[in-house]
Amino acid sequence: MARRLYLAAGWASVGLGTVGIFLPILPTVPFMILAAFCFARSSPALEAKLMNHPRYGHHLVAWREKGVVSRRAKWSATSAFLASALIGGLTLTPPWSLLPAAVGLVCGTWLWRRPEA
């Protein structure tokens, strides 16, 4: 039963990560990291496929081995946080309009404190 739950969570993470490619609010790589974690417990073949992916594999390996995030990824995420805060500020009513900025500030602070590759 647990294996099936991990497999479902892995696929859901891949789906959310794929959506994150197109939406600035959703990050891609953290969902792929979660998918790799779930697939490691449910499907070694899918885990290997993710870890060897030409675009995301090196990020996943770097995170798993050393907990590092590349400077380019940090800047990309920061840009996405800023875009989300701007969109939220323009389209939401207070106090909800502050939520994207607050989440971006918290997540960005954590992200920039991670070691770099």
> What is the general shape?
globular
Give average pLDDT, whole number: 91
Poorly predicted parts: none
For the CA atoms, what is the radius of gyration?
A: 16 Å
Query: Which class best fits the helix and strand makeup?
Result: mainly alpha
Count every helix, treating DSSP H or I runs of 4 or more residues as helices: 6
Q: Strand percentage, roughly?
A: under 5%
Main beta-sheet annotation? none
Element order, helices and strands?
HHHHHH
Give the end-to-end Cα distance, rounded to a whole number of Å.
37 Å
Number of strands: 0
Helix content: over 70%
Describe it for me?
The protein is mostly helical and 117 residues long. Helix content is 74%, strand content 0%. It has 6 helices and no strands. Helix 2 packs across helix 4 and helix 5 packs antiparallel against helix 6. It is globular and about 45 Å long. The protein starts with a helix and ends in a 5-residue tail after the last helix.
Characteristic key phrases:
117 residues, mainly alpha, 74% helix
Short description:
By secondary structure, this protein is an all-alpha fold. Helices cover 74% and strands 0% of the residues.
Would you spell out the secondary-structure blueprint of this structure?
Layout: H1 2-22, H2 29-40, H3 44-51, H4 57-66, H5 71-91, H6 99-112
Helix pairs in contact: 1-2, 2-3, 2-4, 5-6
